[in-house]
From TrEMBL:
PROSITE patterns: GATASE_TYPE_2. Residues 77-91 have a biased composition (Basic and acidic residues). GO terms for biological process: purine nucleobase biosynthetic process; purine nucleotide biosynthetic process. This is amidophosphoribosyltransferase. The keyword Protein transport does not apply. In the C-terminal section; belongs to the purine/pyrimidine phosphoribosyltransferase family. SUPFAM superfamilies: N-terminal nucleophile aminohydrolases (Ntn hydrolases), PRTase-like. Transmembrane segments: none annotated. Gene3D superfamilies: 3.40.50.2020, Glutamine Phosphoribosylpyrophosphate, subunit 1, domain 1. It comes from Rubus argutus.
């Protein structure tokens, strides 16, 4: 098998300038990623019907005696019973950001800085694995990058080869064990991995592996990848990765580290971004976004292509095709919300994309107004585009506090919209007596939008016109983004006019889906629009656990089937034959 694969891919291997060699070998233990939260729309068009679900964005932790038997709110209570779990930012959350560096004597410190640049992709856990004297050494922790790492921690990570990871998930009692990168030892050595994405066939792969004797420490889909690498008969290590990835379905942008190699892999559809750059000393850098390259003064070279495996070792850089890849299906939400404006994602400037989104809204949904403001920070660039096209001044009508934590003790006399007011402060001098256009990137549940409209009107705005720089979201994501269930998505249950009435704005308009595709031009077919259309490039056929990574069974105290309360249904627009498949998985 290995020989066959080696011969089939040999023609696609290319080598770059050799890099300085680096030593290695290792120890290990599993230490994981999280399984994102799914859900599905009931149709495939941008129509909006039915009534609103009033579900709230609630965090959960696990009961101490059973990781999955009883979920309860994680809100911490003040002795007087007053508290708020500040989580009103209802935007979809990017699950992870990854970094890999080869050939730099300060690899761990550069990794640390690159993770800072990717902090927006995950704020609840961070980790770095570095290789020194053939040993993979790991430091991981809960919190922001600056909270997890300090000088003494980085001193524990010498070497010129490192990978890093930032993670988003909900708080939970066992969260630390799920912080990546994690390391595993097997008969041929050790391997570390950091993963951005989600595998839609995780359940069936895990069931197969457990049937053959594998023991799982977590419910992480990334752990499946390590098991597949360990049991592969292919040689060398590179082909073990290829063998494992050929069995995966879904989204994955991953970086692996061994005693002497850095490997970057991207799934055949290219759902999640992964770029490659090089520093002036020749060291090679991989990262989820180009903003990470900019901070550590690495020059952007190219994307890791969909279906590609890139290997960096003492021989240089080798590239090969993982497998035949179909039409790319890159996540459009990277350009709408996730990525930083100064990044280049999928070959396009994120700033320019958002500016044009705003211009399209000004052209297709104009309204008489005196001032244009943004919901900071993600709505700013689209608002600038809208204001420029409409010929109306852009001003800061909302000021965002960057020092807000998650939980606050609320005063005894309840403050309406307390969570939003902690984070956003209206500027009365900008708003009073004005007809205001407020631009935001998306509406998910609608609860935050209604509070923002009320905030603006209380500050004296004469009219509030909401403009959304994305089409209505009607479907949940399976490919590495934490989004609410379809029942919680307001656009999946209400028409645009009903949403306008619910949030209380004087008018409401979304970015038209056809205009979004037209703006992307010839590249429009290369993007995934499942959250807008309900058409999934890789059909999810398995049930998935909501926000599992922190609290589901650890492979010792329960089985897959015991996770009753946390499961939400997969896309039920299935053919009859899929039912047998689903029952066989669980």
């Amino acid at each position: 098998m290995a020989a066959a694969k080696a011969s089939s891919i040999s023609s696609s291997i290319s080598r770059a300038t050799p890099l300085p060699p680096t030593p290695r070998q290792s120890s290990p233990s599993f230490s994981p990623k999280t399984l994102p939260k799914p859900s599905y729309p009931h149709r495939t068009s941008i129509a909006h019907t039915s009534s609103l679900s009033h579900a709230h964005n609630t965090s959960f932790t696990a009961h101490s005696q059973n990781p999955i038997s009883g979920f309860f709110s994680s809100n911490k209570q003040h002795p007087d019973g007053r508290s708020i779990d500040y989580d009103d930012d209802e935007k979809p959350r990017e699950e992870c950001g990854v970094v890999g560096i080869y050939g730099d004597p300060e690899a761990s410190r550069l990794c640390y800085l690159a993770l800072h640049a990717l902090q927006h992709r995950g704020q609840e856990g961070a980790g770095i694995v570095c290789v020194q004297d053939n040993v993979l050494q790991s430091v991981t922790g809960v919190g922001l990058v600056s909270e997890v790492f300090n000088q003494s921690k980085l001193d524990q990570l010498p070497g010129d080869l490192a990978i890093g990871h930032v993670r988003y998930s909900t708080a939970g009692s066992s969260m630390l064990k799920n912080v990546q990168p994690f390391v595993a030892g097997y008969r041929f050595g050790s391997v570390g991995v950091a993963h951005n994405g989600n595998l839609v066939n995780y359940g069936s792969l895990r069931a197969m592996l457990e049937e053959n004797g594998s023991i799982f420490n977590t419910s992480s889909d990334t752990e499946v990848v390590l098991h597949l690498i360990a049991i592969s008969k292919a040689r060398p290590f590179l082909l073990r990765i290829v063998d494992a990835c050929e069995q995966l379905e879904g989204a994955y942008s991953m970086v692996f580290v061994t005693q002497d190699k850095l490997v970057a892999v991207r799934d055949p559809h290219g759902f999640r971004p992964l770029v490659m750059g090089r520093r002036s000393n020749g060291s090679v850098v991989f990262a989820s976004e180009t903003c990470a390259l900019d901070l550590i003064e690495a020059t952007y070279e190219r994307e890791v292509f969909p279906g590609e495996v890139v290997v960096v070792d003492k021989e240089g850089v080798q590239s090969l095709c993982l497998m035949a890849h179909p039409q790319p299906k890159q996540c459009i939400f990277e350009h709408i919300y996730f990525a930083l404006p100064n990044s280049v994602v999928f070959g396009r400037s994120v700033y320019e994309s958002r500016r044009v989104f705003g211009e399209i809204l000004a052209t297709e949904a104009p309204v008489e107004c005196d001032v244009v403001i943004a919901v900071p920070d993600s709505g700013v660039v689209a608002a600038l585009g809208y204001a420029g096209k409409a010929g109306v001044p852009f001003q800061q009508g909302l000021i965002r506090s960057h020092y807000v934590g998650r939980t606050f003790i609320e005063p005894s006399q309840k403050i309406r919209d307390f969570g939003v007011k902690l984070k956003l402060s209206p500027v009365r001098a900008v708003l009073e007596g004005k007809r205001v256009v407020v631009v935001d990137d998306s509406i998910v549940r609608g609860t935050t939008s209604s509070k923002i409209v009320r905030l603006l009107k209380e500050a004296g705005a004469k009219e509030v016109h909401m403009r959304i720089a994305s089409p209505p979201i009607i479907g949940s994501c399976y490919y590495g983004v934490d989004t609410p269930s379809s029942e919680e998505l307001i656009s999946n249950r209400m028409k645009v006019e009903e949403i306008r009435e619910f949030i209380g704005s004087d008018s409401l308009a979304f970015l038209p889906f056809d205009s979004l595709q037209g703006m992307l031009g010839t590249q429009s077919s290369n993007f995934c629009y499942a959250c807008f259309t309900g058409n999934y490039p890789v059909e999810p056929r398995e049930d998935k656990v909501k926000r599992v990574g922190d609290f589901v069974d650890d492979g010792m105290t329960g089985s897959f089937g015991s996770i009753d309360g946390a499961w939400i249904p997969a896309n039920r627009i299935h053919k009859q034959e899929d039912k047998e498949f689903e029952s066989s998985v669980l």
